[in-house]
Structures
1.
Amino acid sequence: MEPSIINVGMAEMAVLRDSGELCSLGLGSCVAVCLYDPPTKVAGMAHIMLPDSERSLDLGNKGKFADLAIPLLISQMTDLGADSQRLLAIIVGGAEMFTFPGRSYSALRIGERNIASVKALLEELHIPIIGESVAGKQGKSVFFNVSTGIIQVRTLMGGLAKFSFAGADSCEQ
């Protein structure tokens, strides 16, 4: 049987155990949160659109918001056997794709706000971030090989970053 390849779209999340690949294509201001429990090889990815659900009138899709998606992702991972105390994180995305000359509206800096929200929540949950490819002005795609724990990040203009949950292979090119 061929390993699963799951595309995690905007405001979606997915979990796998042992094998397969989680990928998220075309991250702009969104942030992909990749969590992994190395001993059990349980992996999860959430494609987060917004920093929090505070002002939202529609909370139907919890995957859209950092404050709702990350706890739900952890719950789905523990249902597959992950230990929440061993989870490690790698985060990708949060670019500022659009600029508005002469204006500095913090509300428009969604990428920056997404990154800050994700980092604060992971710190609050005591989940160490062991790698990141965030900010900038280019879109990114992330590919997470569950069996090896290796993540590859490709930027729109051809750049490549590679991270490993084993810590032995962290390089940026």
Note: Residues 110-124 form the longest helix (15 residues).
2.
Amino acid sequence: MKVILKEDVKGLGKKEQMVEASDGYARNYLFPKGLAVEATAANINIMKTKKEAEAQKKEKEIAQAKELANKLKDITVTLKAKAGESGKLFGSITAKDVADALKSQHKLDIDKKQLVMPEAIKAIGTFTVEAKLYPAISSKFTIKIESL
């Protein structure tokens, strides 16, 4: 019997996948537990529609990420912080500070978790930070740290 899985079933298949299961296994285990539905024409249509909608959503997210990456590559974010005479900051500049500055200075909403900074910035100068916007889509921009 062909069934469409609603959840991942170990040894059978992944969610939204159409698989062949024995009649008894499907009727006595998969259907009562809500793990699968019978692969009727209507259910197959619903599955195809969901997959198409998911693909369109993914394409839209990729397009938005590429657009944001293009905007980011030409941006310079300027942050001011207290520093000593040697150019060393009192405290540090973190990914959260950079994300807040991007939002306030350039109206770009990027999560601090998307910013790749090996460690917090602790000196005055110009630094390059990478933003991973989507798997395989990233962009680098410049941060300029100035003394108050």
Note: The radius of gyration is 25 Å.
3.
Amino acid sequence: MRFGMGYGAWTGGHHSRRGHHGMGEDGEGRRGRRRVFDGGELRLVLLRLIAEQPRHGYDLIRAIEERTGGAYAPSPGVIYPTLTLLDDMGLIGEQQSEGSKKLFAITPAGEAHLAERVDEIDGLFARLDAMGEHRARTEGGSIRRAMGNLRQVLVNRMGGDVDEDTLHAIVQVIDEAAQKIERLK
């Protein structure tokens, strides 16, 4: 866990609000977990976020989650050991902060480390942005709204006595809509 690749650095598939430990497929088509970050990549992402402004662990989790549109949020169990490592490496340092949360800022050594890895870091952030764009395309708000409308209409309509003919008519409308959506290009 010391190098930022604990359980929270895995993702794929559909996700809950926090943790995001879904399933993907490996190279052989078997279902398994897929890493978002390899090796020191999470360290670089955290370092760049801290370079933008001093941050604490949960702020870093939120920043990554926002950047990916909720598709990925590393767990505290992977963030905090990585922050400890970055601090041990002299790339970040703890700052005075109000409250009990540790606030970290980048050090001159951290800035130099970032400067040496600009292209790699830009690629990592492009990957995070692509995750967010994919999530927005595949889980768009308008689709969620329409699905919610359908659900509410069904709940209201099915709440009372529904005769068999009406039930079959509702099923037919839903099946027709599904077929039309399937044929869209």
Note: The CA atoms of residues 44 and 64 lie 12 Å apart.
4.
Amino acid sequence: MARKRGHAATWMEVAVANAGIRKGISALGWAYSWAVARQSIGHDPSVEEVADWWRQSHRTAYRNQAAFRKAFPTLETPSRIFEQPEIQERLREAAEFGDRMDPEKAGGGRVSDLEIVRIGMLTASL
């Protein structure tokens, strides 16, 4: 893929270059899941806490975390992805919405494809 001079890579470009399309998308989904859970819980969540917050299996959460590690090998956590102010309000809204949902009606949590694309299009700051 030819790169334009001066073009700063997006998070999606970094993820896909390192892990491929499928794992890159899973990686960004994991990053978003982690960030929303962190916003709700108030601290950097464990894999199990993320899975429980989103009502997912721990196995799925570990698989998505592995995709994140492959896509972003220099990042310990997804926190760097969410430093940009334009995403902070969306994280707060998603966490508040999730906190208000009735667990009996919510079913398994799923990250919106649109949110993955929005995050992916932000300029990466590695």
Note: Residues 11-120 form one domain.
